[in-house]
Design brief:
Distance between the termini: 27 Å
Largest sheet: none
Shape: globular
Number of helices: 19
Helix content: over 70%
Number of strands: 0
Structural class: mainly alpha
């Protein structure tokens, strides 16, 4: 019986490794594939936990924290304006706590962890070169085209949301390369960083590019050695020169240039950044989310209800010519999403959860200087930058990228 259990654990671990290695491919294949990958990972992790029940003791802190967060979301559903919508989202959220445990478990094997980083890096750079190809040819290597001028989509076909994927794996891939080059080739890493940032600019997703620039800047601020300050300054100077030359050499009617120039002109024509935001489609979502929060300040309107509430006529502002843009599936900003859908209580619980893990992860990084942990910490923090728009926190695509980075972040805390 013991031999059978050991064999079953070994088999489950190998399947789990395969599933985690191919996470970047799953993310490029659509929500159905992503969800199947998460569910299968949870299934094989449950088998391992059932056979080796002592593992529960190794992850009890994380399990309790997730149980508290998950319970708050389920309880919130009973105060929702649409119980069916909210409870379905609260229950679907339960797939991620076990997914995090599965990643932590497989990462505890150093050889598995190295393989995962290796393949994630390879897949990232395939996407990296595919984006370059798409920019110059108008389609990616499979013939996919973005439906939006000035936006690249790569393997996501017509959906121009590759920026979040690029943001989620860029620093992890760079960290892998950083760890495996000789000291004298560190200059190569600095210039690779410049190229990664430039491709992020070409993707055309302005919010994700700003986040990308911020996390790379912070990455070198916190990890740079004093003797490499010159290279750091060289990166900034080269990046600014490259962007300037690129903009000057492209025609003014180029879609990518037009997107950046148009937003610059719009900001200049407004009194401040807030009046600019209010004049955009995202600003309308934000304003509606505020109104929903004011109406339901304690528990919010309920998970997954913004798509219902935002279209109601009671949120129409007749003094605003853009009021018809108020409706959407989500507010496109994580703070507004949590406030409007879970209220003040949900917001406090939600950000207490993440603040706790981010703080102990920062303390861990200060001690260990682990480059992978720094990369994931910066990504997790970037997900909560105020005002910048983004996808729904609970979507399969965005949530999977987030929880993968969250798992990497807390793994190096030495939390068993």
């Amino acid at each position: 019986m013991k031999y059978l259990n050991n064999s079953l654990i070994s088999y489950s671990e190998k399947i789990l490794l395969l599933l985690l290695v191919t996470i970047p491919i799953q993310l490029l294949s659509g929500s159905a594939v992503i969800n199947v990958g998460v569910i299968l990972s949870n299934f094989f992790m449950l088998i391992i936990l059932f056979i080796n029940r002592q593992l529960f003791n190794n992850y009890y802190k994380i399990i309790y924290a997730f149980l508290f967060l998950s319970a708050s979301l389920i309880i919130n559903s009973f105060f929702s304006t649409s119980f069916e919508s909210s409870i379905s989202r609260a229950i679907s959220f339960l797939r991620f706590p076990l997914y995090v445990i599965a990643i932590l478990y497989i990462f505890s094997y150093e050889n598995y962890r190295r393989k995962i980083y290796f393949y994630w890096t390879i897949i990232f750079f395939i996407v990296f070169f595919d984006l370059i190809f798409e920019y110059y040819s108008g389609h990616n290597i499979l013939g996919f085209r973005s439906y939006m001028p000035g936006r690249l989509a790569s393997f996501l076909n017509k959906e121009p949301i590759i920026g979040n994927y690029y943001l989620g794996f860029s620093l992890l891939a760079l960290s892998f390369v950083f760890n495996y080059v000789r000291q004298k080739k560190r200059l190569f890493i600095f210039f690779l960083s410049i190229v990664i940032i430039l491709i992020g600019f070409l993707i055309g997703e302005r919010s994700n590019f700003i986040k990308l620039f911020i996390i790379f800047f912070a990455f070198y601020i916190f990890f740079i050695e004093k003797k490499n300050i010159f290279y750091f300054l060289l990166i900034i100077l080269t990046l600014l020169i490259s962007l300037t030359m690129f903009i000057k050499t492209k025609p003014i009617n180029s879609p990518i240039i037009h997107r950046w120039i148009s937003i610059t002109n719009q900001i200049e024509n407004k009194e401040n950044i807030f009046s600019f935001i209010n004049s955009t489609q995202y600003g309308q979502h934000y304003k509606t989310a505020k109104k929903i929060f004011i109406k339901y300040p304690v528990f919010g309107s309920g998970l997954k209800t913004f798509r219902i509430e935002s279209f109601k006529t009671e949120y129409v502002d007749l003094t605003d010519p853009m009021t018809n843009w108020r409706g959407a599936t989500h507010p496109h900003q994580v703070h507004y999403e949590i406030l409007s859908e879970t209220g003040l209580i949900g917001y406090i619980i939600f950000f207490s959860f993440f603040s706790y893990f981010v703080i102990i992860s920062i303390n861990s990084f200060i001690r260990t200087k682990n480059i992978y942990q720094l990369s994931s910490i910066l990504f997790v923090i970037s997900a909560f930058i105020p005002l910048l728009p983004g996808g729904s926190f609970f979507s399969s695509y965005g949530a999977t990228i987030f929880w993968v980075n969250f798992s990497v972040m807390i793994f190096y805390n030495r939390i068993k």
